[in-house]
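Lab intake sheet, docking and co-folding queue.

SAMPLE TYPE: protein with bound small molecule
LIGAND NAME: coenzyme A
LIGAND FORMAT: SMILES
REQUESTED OUTPUT: full 3D complex as structure tokens
PRIORITY: normal
SUBMITTED BY: R.K., bench team

The fields below were copied directly from the construct record.
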Amino acid sequence: MFLSLRDVSYDNAWKSRTFPPRADPGITPDNGTMPQIRPYRPEDRAAVYRICTLTGDGGNDATGLHVSDDLVPDIFAGPYVDFEPELAFVVDTSSDTGTTIAGYIVATADTRAFVERYRSQRLPAFAAKYPREPGPVPEMVDLGYQPERMLVAEVDEYPAHLHIDLLPELQGMGFGRQLVRTLLAALAARGIRGLHLTMAASNTPARAFYDRLGFVELRSSTPDAPVLGIRTDAAV
Ligand SMILES: CC(C)(COP(=O)(O)OP(=O)(O)OC[C@H]1O[C@@H](n2cnc3c(N)ncnc32)[C@H](O)[C@@H]1OP(=O)(O)O)[C@@H](O)C(=O)NCCC(=O)NCCS
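RESULT FIELD (auto-filled):
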């Protein structure tokens, strides 16, 4: 499928605009002229879902791969923006002719609490939406039934975890680094000292990104299931 910001209401006027320089470390003032990082708002939810699907196959488009295009965001995006919207940040590509976003970072500050909350508040609706039919359960559906998979061995040292996705048009411009930097600051302000992530081993571009930012492989990491961590006071 052709990927375009048009898929999330991208407007042509924005195309010709200048990106902030890589060196710009912070949140760009809200002047409507360039992509900027800002806190998530409830009205961003549908676009977050769309971006998650468009990047949900190890960084590539997951449209049509699963029983529903909502499946990947129902596991990796929705619970985060609903439970902890204050730890979600987006890259806003709005202009005077349209409002949209083209990337996001979502997180939980406390993976243990998140797992409990997911099991009690989310799993019943997930099970109703994705019933386990007799026979083999698709791997992605199964992930939604197994929140305890998030309890990595280092969860107490690195209690927060994240998911980050940018549409292809916005990749490689420094927004990923800025989103991680923004999240680390938000976590540090809440007294959270460590952040981790799990990822698909096949997503080698993302792995290069995390390595570049200074994430380190945690003890429980395996070649098939990388687990990376970073302190929230790290300079990225
Ligand atoms: C992975 C992702 C979040 C990175 O964000 P990004 O905005 O593209 O990355 P940045 O431009 O901020 O790059 C930050 C640093 O990482 C490096 N980097 C990023 N991608 C890289 C790659 N594929 N190979 C080598 N280095 C890379 C950049 O060179 C940059 O280093 P520099 O500042 O010293 O030049 C983004 O590309 C993305 O969303 N990809 C698709 C979805 C995905 O895979 N999500 C992660 C799932 S685990």
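REVIEWER NOTE: The CA atoms of residues 71 and 129 lie 9 Å apart.
SIGN-OFF: pending second check by T.M.
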